[in-house]
Write a structure and sequence with these properties.
alpha+beta; OB fold (Dihydrolipoamide Acetyltransferase, E2P); 1 helix; 18% helix; binds copper (II) ion
């Protein structure tokens, strides 16, 4: 029984850590000189933001050289001083 409880705790805690939010979007513009990009994004559940086109920051360490306007992507972000910085970016196939 103790083993089962420990296993359950492990599953619950690890799923909490792994639960990252992916948001689908489309790149509109990339401005690497200013570390900014504009994307059309879908509804973002975690911050209840409706779908819209808006600017994002590009997190340091994120390379966007392979991306261009029109690319369909999914991304993760963090909120920094009220702006959303893209931290992880992937092309959708
Ligand atoms: Cu938005």
């Amino acid at each position: 029984m103790k083993k089962i409880i420990l296993a359950l705790i492990f599953v619950l805690s690890s799923s909490a850590v792994v639960a990252v939010e992916w948001v689908n979007g489309e790149i509109v513009r990339i401005d690497t000189a200013r570390n900014r990009m504009v994307m059309k994004h879908e509804y973002i559940a975690s911050i209840k933001m409706n779908a819209m086109t808006m600017p994002f920051g590009i997190s340091s360490g994120l390379n966007v050289d392979a991306y261009k306007p029109g690319d369909k992507v999914r991304f993760q972000f963090k909120v920094v001083d009220g702006t959303l910085d893209v931290t992880v970016l992937e092309k959708l196939k």
